[in-house]
Amino acid sequence: MNQESLRLLIQRKIRDRRLPHDGITRVWSSPSDGETCDACEAVLARDQLLMQGITLDLGRKAFQLHVRCFQIWDHERRAS
Fold it and tell me: Hey, is 13 helix, strand or coil?
């Protein structure tokens, strides 16, 4: 997926609350174990780094993203 399409998808997911807009209380990274990215919905390869975060919304499960998707999500949530 190209950068602009990914940015628009992430903006849409933030607006409709499929991705959090709130601040992050905890973030960590680990090697992927084949998880699906909550932003682009692609499976992370085992050689990719997985970014996971927990927001201030206590009812929300941890979300997991590619590094690139995490960077775009963080920028877009701050901009909106």
Answer: helix
